[in-house]
Specification:
The protein is mainly α and about 140 residues long. Helices cover about 80% and strands about 0% of the residues. It has helices at about 5-10, 15-35, 40-55, 60-100, 105-120, 125-135. Helix 2 (about 15-35) packs across helix 3, helix 3 crosses helix 4 and helix 4 (about 60-100) crosses helix 5 (about 105-120). The chain starts with a helix and ends with a helix.
């Protein structure tokens, strides 16, 4: 049961009610999918941009917007993980590659890092699988 104070502070205009309705959804989504190292503000901005693009009072539309935001958020996370792994592998391989090749072009460097990551672990395969799932 709502207290008198809650009743008095509740929004009364349609705009106020619409704004208030977004609070729980945004914060709930952020707490469910963002990691401690990620920006909850950036996730909220993504949800806001999608909400402005598809304005609706329909609950189904709101759920679909949340699902799109979560999928895109996770997809970008996967891209960042892949980039970090590739950069780390290229950095670690650099001394040996410099000795073996002297000058080496970026495509070869990328290819050797990818080959090393994909042949010694299932991480790259798993990232690709997760990215495809988020894209659907």
């Amino acid at each position: 049961m709502a207290t008198d104070r809650q009743i008095e502070s509740a929004p009364v205009t349609p705009e106020g009610k619409a704004h208030s309705a977004q609070n729980a959804r945004k914060h709930g989504l952020c707490s469910a999918i963002h990691l401690a190292t990620e920006s909850s503000e950036e996730l909220e901005q993504l949800v806001d941009r999608l909400t402005k693009r598809v304005p609706s009072d329909d609950v189904l539309d709101e759920l679909l917007i949340e699902e799109m935001a979560a999928a895109k958020w996770r997809q970008v996370r996967i891209w960042n993980i892949e980039k970090a792994l590739m950069n780390d592998k290229m950095q670690r391989q650099q001394p040996a590659l410099t000795q073996g090749y002297g000058e080496i072009d970026h495509a070869t460097r990328n290819g050797l890092a990818f080959d090393s990551l994909s042949s010694k672990s299932t991480t790259i395969y798993n990232l690709d699988h997760y990215e495809a799932r988020q894209g659907r």
